[in-house]
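Run log, item B.
One chain of 373 residues. Sequence copied directly from the ordering sheet:
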Amino acid sequence: MRVLILSASYGSGHAEAARSLAAAFAARGAEPVVVDHFRDLVHPGFASASRALYYWLLRWAPSVWALGYSLGDRLEPESPLALGMTRLGTTRLAHLLDTMRPDAVVTVHATPAAAMATLAASGRRVPPHTTAVTDFVAHSQWMPRPVDRYCVAAEEVRNEFVARGISPDRVVVTGVPVRQGFARLPDPATARRALGLAPQLPTVVAMAGTQGSLGRLSDVVRALLAVERPMQAVVVAGRDDRLRDRLTRLAAGSPLRVVGYVDDVPALLAAADLLVTKAGGMTLAEATAAGVPLLLYGSLPGQERGNERFASRAGIALVARSRRELRRLLDRVLGEPDTIDRMQASLRRLRRPDAAQHVVDLVLDQIAIRGDP
């Protein structure tokens, strides 16, 4: 069986979900093929330019991105006001489907999901299509029609999809696909020893995604340095070497450890009592898979603020809007074990480390049903 996985290189969450699904399909004997929709089916130049614009907006004009995100939520994916975005890459996608002849297609980004739906709506015969939503919000651009199945993060998100007119039998709560390592986490003391940390000391991990500079990690380091309670912390700067150098100078002489990009995120989160981060979709998915309570700070407008609202309402996160509030909440969480316990209880309801396997099972079952005479 061959499965086409359509992704996009905007942020790290979509690509990580695609890799996790590819590994899960391969483990079941299927042949996964991952394609970057913008680079491979639209144009490499378009992919580079649009990605650069996306990051520029997030860094320098987040209010403009927030406005576009909000307006996009008011439009149907098929609306003429979407300026043809649903047709991006459809010609090459149709050719790819003809030549590759996949048994199923899985999309982990809204644009290729809309492109698949556009081909189906035109009357073209397409393989079974599942879209795995990588945020904890229901946004209209994630709801093109027709799609055979929408896999979502939680029951609350499913309810929103249904409330917006998606048939209940097409929306399945699977969780967001994360790497297999989250299904077999070491205990915290073992994870801390492996990282060279004190096994019994309260441990805070701080990160802001692969592009660490899009977060406010300098504020987080200053807040951690002001905490008087015994604790240890690991601050992940991501792939930004200049940010790592700046944070290292800021934390010099303290018990804070600053590191760059971390590949083994499951082991790092297994060591954490608390994760301080912005509310990226994959970060939330990994934190819930690891059962780590969250303190959210520096979330970007748009989908991250939506993820933030979900996390706070679900009882798995506290939210700080200022450095002063961040310091106060750090003191509170580290000084009140009951707060951690309450958030961990809520996390147990949402924890789905086997989300990728669940999505794969659904897709393979659908292939089997279609293949039956």
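Observations after the first pass:
- The first strand starts at residue 2 and ends at 7.
- The chain has two domains: 2-178+353-371, 181-350.
Flagged for discussion on Thursday.
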